[in-house]
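Hi L., both proteins are below.
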Amino acid sequence: MTAALALLLVSDHVEGSIHVLTVPDGTETDRLTGRHLSEHAGFLALPDGRVACVDDRRGELLVLDPFGDELVESAIPVAVPAEHLACDPSGRWAAVTTGLGENGEPWSDLLTVVDLTTEDAARVRTRVGEPGVTVLGNGDPLVVLRHREPGTLAAHRFADLLAAPPGCPAVTPHTHLPLPDDGHGDAQDPSSGHVFAATGDGVHRARREGDTLVPEQTIPWDSPARGWYLRLDPRRRALWSTLRGGPADPLRWPEWSNQAWHHDLETNRTTLTELGPGLVFRLALAQHHTAFTRIHPDGDELILLDAADTARRVPLPAMDGAPRRGGTPWEGVQRRAVAASPGSDWVAVTRGGHGEAHIFDARTGSEAARLKLDTPLRHGGHAMLRTQTDGAEGDPVGR
């Protein structure tokens, strides 16, 4: 049987380009220039292999069809700087929240909602901050904002927001639930109508009942560490995060501990896997593996967990300008992006500053190709890998 065509989207959000490459050979099938992806909001998987993202410079929500004849399907004005991006499980109703961008403090309270079918959009004011967002389906969609300080899950009827008059009016939530003030990380399970928010004391969850949210028991981390990133695994109804522990001082980042946190929503069973010290953050879901990258002064590696949460470790070539001891892992340094598709065994890892994307076969851990781009991929860029029917849209939150 012929394997499904896999395409890698790689964004250099600093230089302003998005490349579409075949995997593993690296043929460039399309490219956008003058487009600066919001790296924090990331790529959002839509049905039929399509992808949404936000151009943070032009202030547009882009819908891309990398498998179609024209890459840009639509470009819809939205408020920026984009913080988080999500849609409902059908892939029609999208929401974009705003963050602080290149500012020291949050300053924008704008939320944009979009009907991707008609390209109708509206902007409203909510609360200044950096809210997370999910869009729950099951009838008329609900936009659920995850606020901090005070922590709240605030639900708005999508139809009410889309019908808002011009002028960015202030809106109040239809219903809300209290949360701890340190929320960071959002997910939803389309099959059950649950929404999840990562906090210091665990993953808070609520289910939709009509136009309200009903709180349920918090899922503990089962560790003294906590997760700052949360995503749904559409392959087998599970939640994933990376738990970070150790000293709070970012200058001591090489001492941070990292665990892969895997919670099965069917059995309510949690598995923790040690990943090692250093910087580990986002993860990617391949057909049979979950992929992490770990950055450390003693050497970087790709970590592949199989269905039994057994780890295979693959060394990665060093990066010039990588985070160093005595500095922070965020400011003025190169990083890595990791991408995979639930419909493929390929895993892509970028090498920030070098303009490279390394393609690995998750089944063997072997490097199949090293793709060289003509852009440096500063800060590691951002990446998404898709096949046209991989079901990645089962996780309707931007990554």
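That was the first. Here is the second:
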Amino acid sequence: MALTLAALAADRPLGLRVLTGDGLLDRPIGWVHPTELTDPQAFLEGGELLLTTGLALDEETSPSYVRRLVEAGVAGLGFGVGLSHDAVPQALVATAAEVGLPVLEVPRKTPFIAITRAVSRAVAADEYATTVRIGRAQQELTRTAVGQGGPAGVLRKLAKLVGGWVLLFDRTTVTEAAPASARAYGASLREELERLRTGTRVVSLDGQEVVLQTLDTSARRVLAVGASLDTAGRHIVNTAVSVLSLALEQDRAQAAARQALRSGIVDLLAGGQAELALRVLTTAGGEVPEPPWSVLVFLGPPASRRKLLDALEGDVFAARSGASVVAFGPDAVIDTVAAAALRIGGLHGGVAGPVSAGDFAAGLEQAELAARAAEAEDKILVSAAEHTGRGLLSLIDPGVAQAFATGLLAPLRRHDETGRGNLVESLRCWLEHHGHWDTAAARLGVHRHTLRNRIRKVAELLGRDLDSPGVRAELWVALQT
């Protein structure tokens, strides 16, 4: 930390006495500059402690001299007494007090070189501390990036190192925040992010300085740091930008490689090479879902398909396959995938199975046909069995089918006419979604327990076991008539 006027004045061996500016002694001293010039502005950068014996000063010239020093931005003035002046000129003290310039009286016994050495030692110590801090921060950020922390860990470490908050944006969307509460700043920075194309931008947010820095990545990523940054802090942020850029690109490359591997696995399974596909998946360290599998295919816009793959990452085996997303696994994956697709929107899926690994190709083809049917009917999910059942209706005489449907569904329609619940539509939606409670309930806009009660009432009124595939097929045919 830079030496302040207060710390220098407190150095007893120097014997300095504060004449003015008691409330301004927290100013840091950038350097010391002895001069007897009456106008030294051309030789100053600002932040210096100026030392003079007042050789060319008197009561008349002192006021304008002080004002020139203030314009030059000096931190303070050290006036040596006992040589040109027995005491600091009263006009100088009065003007300095008026314009806010700290003045330190330097006794005759204290050479200016002693003050210069004191400041020099402090500056050297400060620079060394800054160098050490930067070095340690670089090591910590690098270790975090290459370890288990990844980009999110780098953000948390950076926030701690600079004593502030950090956000990572993908375009104008917050993807990571440290601490989590910092996400609240995201909306306020959106307009500035839209203006920023590349490089650095410093903005003010609620009176706090925020640094926006673009990252060197293929996607448009921006790092936002809300903190009062000193020299070390700025170096630390620059290091974080480099480390984050590399970590994010590595993550992107690894994700692309994983997706390519999964797409290859699907291609092998679809080509009838199940044994080879499972061997490759096992060798690559992937988990092999235990057959038999339900196979799902989802169609939709590219952006929606990407979001679905991201949502399923780590939970379900899912891969790109042409213009669709393919997922497979035990029956439980149906609810997981359908719920994610429903949240994202714009997706239409088909499900087939359960199938063995050797029958994957047939299941995939059936799921694709069902997905196209779902797309045509604007439904979230259609089962292959349901889609196939529709084709059977063309083989049944319409009059016979209508009579069958009327008789079978009559108890449900009579119940619905009383206004005590919509059993027919609830049954239709439940069958459409392969008997999966959460997805069907969400589609109907009711709680899953409400749907369970309705289906239980359906079974009671019909006197049928709805767990029977044959009963479900009959009901579906009746509902399509």
